[in-house]
Amino acid sequence: MSSATACAQPNIALVKYWGKRDEGLILPATGSLSMTLDAFTTTTTVRLGVEADSFTLNGSPAAEAAMSRTTSFLDLVRELAADDGPAAVTSVNEAPTGAGLASSASGFAALALAASKAYGLDLDQSELSRLARRGSGSACRSIVPGFAVWHAGRDDASSYAEPIPAPDLRLVIVTIDSHEKAVSSREAMRLTRDTSPFYNAWISSTEAVLDEMVSACRTGDIARIGELTELHALRMHAVIASCRPPVRYLAPASVSVFDAAAALRASGVQAWATADAGPNVCLLTTPGEAGEVASAVSGLGRVRVVSPGPGARLVSPGLGARSVP
Ligand code: DP6
């Protein structure tokens, strides 16, 4: 009776993924770049030798939509492993699910590793990243430690994330609301592609920002990394707001955090804001300034400073976590 347990953390994109070229394979319209966090761990166990598929999330049976996404994902693993046996999936998620802290990224990264091991597959980092991508696009970046570039690729084989050198940075996460969002990223991405008059400009400008961000990371140009991070987040929220019907993820309190970042910069502190598909905002800063940034925004939400974290890894009972080779 085979079983495997894996952990993974969410990632926050500095260059966002927003739009798919192929919905079935989850091929993105552009590449993206992120930092995997050292917080909000998802721990997932996949156990074979059971009667039927099941998915327990944070101690309760998962809702139907989450269950069917998990079963479809297990089907991909079963096809790769040529083993159609059912699996019991148990997952514990430290991040608030669905609130824009990318719990689907840590969730599918941990599931990809645990399920592939339980079904006897031995995938390398890029194969695992490709597999995680099929569950949720951004999950492919949570396989990778630290900073990751997800290459858009031409096809399934060429669309995966890999590590990129970058300076040591911190994210100050300001949690404003941890309720599930009204419109999922998946749905809003589709709506953006289908209804925004600015979609093509979003895609072509993202390619240019990604190229600039990759070179800023390589040269360690923190000011350029920060400026591009905030600019790209605001462009994503602008293209989302231009949908029909419009979607707005940022709350008034989120906008206050963007204002706080501008005020910090005006006083000589390095801080740049970004937000995924939800109201919570992250401030990118340096290790030396993270404490000051965190106290400046402590009145705006729950604040936590996070560092670049590890990629997805197996957890051997009694032995702790170990990295994927
Ligand atoms: C705003 O990866 O959740 O966080 O591929 O449809 O599952 P699906 O979408 P998902 O979208 C993440 C969108 C984002 C930006 C990012 O993480 O790059």
Automatic annotation (TrEMBL):
A cellular component annotation (GO) from this entry: cytosol
EC category name: lyase
Listed InterPro entries: GHMP_kinase_C_sf, Mev_decarb, Mev_diP_decarb, MVD-like_N, Mvd1_C, Ribosomal_Su5_D2-typ_SF, Ribsml_uS5_D2-typ_fold_subgr
Stretches assigned to the Mvd1 C-terminal domain: 172-297
Diphosphomevalonate decarboxylase-like N-terminal domain span: 8-161
Keyword Lyase attached: yes
GO MF assignments: ATP binding; diphosphomevalonate decarboxylase activity
EC assignment: 4.1.1.33
Record-stated family: Belongs to the diphosphomevalonate decarboxylase family.
Name of the protein in its database record: diphosphomevalonate decarboxylase
Lineage of the organism: Bacteria, Bacillati, Actinomycetota, Actinomycetes, Propionibacteriales
